[in-house]
């Protein structure tokens, strides 16, 4: 999974193509819980590019897009928000897949 490097990059990705941004942090146990099955999800939904957003590095961005709990996911296609799965709760593989399926 690519890691977000700048706000400019976020704007570029958000506005060009199909992206799912995963807001996370290294210290977050619920975020680490989903690590083992994330590659499987990325493989299954190749029409999206997945981008890791470090909550601590991009705290202003989190506030801007109303992400106050992690792990959280926001999907965009060509500048339009397709959907969000935002909460502080632990997420299962099935819940993440259901969220992505609901974007279509």
Automatic annotation (TrEMBL):
Annotated PROSITE patterns = THIOREDOXIN_2
Q: Which InterPro entries does UniProt cross-reference here? A: Thioredoxin-like_sf, Thioredoxin_domain, Thioredoxin_H-type-like
Single Gene Ontology MF annotation: isomerase activity
**Chain ranges of the Thioredoxin domain:** 1-104
Q: What Pfam families does the record point to?
A: Thioredoxin
Alphabetically ordered keywords of this record? Isomerase
Report the protein name in the record.
Thiol-disulfide isomerase/thioredoxin
Which source organism? Anoxybacillus andreesenii
